[in-house]
């Protein structure tokens, strides 16, 4: 319980440290400071703190929770959405997922990515005629404009994104 509270406080401080340039500000922790001891002196003064940087949380990728969530965040989205239908047990899905996230992140908000686990949301998989995983749909203004099944390399994924944005 105490660890969860500490983690929550730590994450809140990290999230609030974003600089105006879109990069993360350095995080300085008193716990990481190395005490400096001067011989013959009883006081301990801390040295300069160690600094480490955190990576930005990807806000262009999200997991679908249920049908109404899919409706709100995908179908009603003004931004084009890439929908990744995947499964935990699917090997190719584990390869394609990070590739897709990387290519979507390169688009700087022009496209967002929704991840749908077909085992949790079989109704969505049936509705969008997903017969194999991974299946990736491109949805623009609520309509499916493109689709592919299987694994693709980064060049093919970038071409897929360009068609969606254009």
Fold and architecture overview:
There is one protein chain. With 166 residues, this protein is of the alpha/beta class. The protein is 34% helix and 23% strand. The strands form 3 sheets. A 5-stranded mixed sheet has the order 5-7-6-8-9, sandwiched between helices. It has a two-stranded antiparallel sheet with strand order 1-4. The longest helix is centred in the middle third of the chain and has 16 residues, at 91-106. The termini are far apart.
Helix content: 25-40%
Low-confidence stretches: none
The fraction of residues in strands falls at 15-25%
Q: How would you sum up the major sheet? A: 5 strands, mixed
Gap between N and C termini: 49 Å
How big is the Rg? 22 Å
Instruction: Summarize model confidence as the mean pLDDT.
Output: 82
Give the H and E element order: HEEEEEHEHEHEEH
Strand order of the largest sheet: 5-7-6-8-9
Instruction: Count the E strands.
Output: 9
Structural class: alpha/beta
The number of helical segments is: 5
Overall geometry? globular
Keywords:
alpha/beta; two-stranded antiparallel sheet
Structure summary:
The protein is of the alpha/beta class and 166 residues long. The chain is 34% helix and 23% strand.
Fold topology:
Blueprint: H1 2-15, E1 27-28, E2 35-37, E3 44-46, E4 51-52, E5 61-63, H2 67-75, E6 81-86, H3 91-106, E7 112-117, H4 122-127, E8 135-140, E9 143-149, H5 154-165
Helix pairs in contact: 3-5
């Amino acid at each position: 319980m105490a660890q969860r509270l500490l983690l929550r406080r730590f994450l809140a401080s990290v999230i609030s440290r974003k600089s105006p340039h879109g990069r993360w500000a350095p995080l300085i922790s008193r716990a990481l400071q190395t005490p400096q001891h001067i011989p013959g002196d009883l006081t301990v003064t801390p040295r300069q703190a160690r600094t480490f940087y955190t990576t930005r949380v990807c806000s262009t990728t999200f997991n679908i929770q249920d049908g109404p969530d899919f409706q709100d965040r995908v179908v009603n989205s003004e931004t084009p959405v890439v929908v990744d239908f995947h499964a935990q047990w699917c090997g190719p899905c584990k390869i394609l997922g990070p590739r897709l996230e990387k290519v979507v992140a390169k688009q700087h908000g022009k496209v967002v990515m929704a991840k749908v686990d077909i085992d949790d949301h079989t109704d969505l998989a049936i509705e969008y005629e997903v017969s194999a995983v991974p299946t990736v749909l491109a949805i623009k203004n609520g309509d499916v404009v493109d689709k592919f099944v299987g694994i693709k390399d980064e060049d093919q994924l970038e071409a897929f994104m360009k068609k969606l944005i254009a």
